[in-house]
Amino acid sequence: MTLIEYIIHTKEFATLPSITTGILEMLDRDEVFIHELTKLIESDPALTMKLLRVANSPLYGVRGQIKTLRNAIMKMGFRRLTNIVLSVAIFSKFWLSTTKGAAEIMDKFWYHSASTGTIAKSISSKSNQEYHGTEFIGGLLYKIGKLAMVQNNVHRYNKVIELVENEGATDYDAEKTIFGFTHVDVGDKIAGEWKLPGILRVVIANHLHPEDLSENRNLVASVSLAGVICEENGAGFYNGFRYDNISDITPWKLLCESFPVFREKGIDWITDDIDKQLKTSDEFLAALKMA
Hints:
Elements: H1 3-8, H2 11-14, H3 18-27, H4 34-42, H5 45-55, H6 69-76, H7 78-96, H8 103-126, H9 134-141, H10 144-152, H11 154-167, H12 171-179, H13 183-194, H14 198-206, H15 217-232, H16 250-258, H17 260-265, H18 268-271, H19 274-289
Helix pairs in contact: 5-7, 6-7, 7-9, 8-9, 8-15, 8-19, 9-14, 9-15, 10-11, 10-13, 11-12, 13-14, 15-16
């Protein structure tokens, strides 16, 4: 077994929670009934409670309090709710199983991931694109490979961080040096093992080069741009890339090509509410951490 296979077949990463697996199976069906989804989620009271907290959080801004799962489905729609469930279930699984000695790094990882998802959601709103929450869970999971690498060997990943912080390496090159592969390689394999929806696998596998895509380019560019904005505003996770001007990076240029309003209003239009977005990320994580 290779190291990359060993990493993705550890106890934490070999399987998803049963509810998550059940929802993914539902997504493959032509027809799903609300009572089926409700019954499946309600079989886990803790997950149900967290889901309702998130649905009522500022992240979604739903009018009126959501008190039941049926109410959540009716107000938010099936696709958006299933993406929230996947986000909550995956976060809860790995938050609770954090490797000893990795807690500080994981706090930083999840803050970056939640912030990336939150900002990607804001970008999609400003471009009037409806991704049904895929942009948020895409941001939450786009660097899931890093999580697996840290969980597998936090001391080894600290060497990656040292190369990034002290020698100016990118995370991609530093991971290649220390592990022999990158978080993109690991993340893509995890997405395959978990049988995540194809569109999420596209985000995970292509977030470094959205320009290579012919489909889903704008979605992936939105997540990529959100990640860069996080790095530039104190919510990063050691990516090591250097940016003289965010307006010069490829994801921004791709979005400007597709949505002229971005070019007209400039990058400040995306970043002018960054403090609000990061606060929303904090509130999302707080909702998930509550017992």
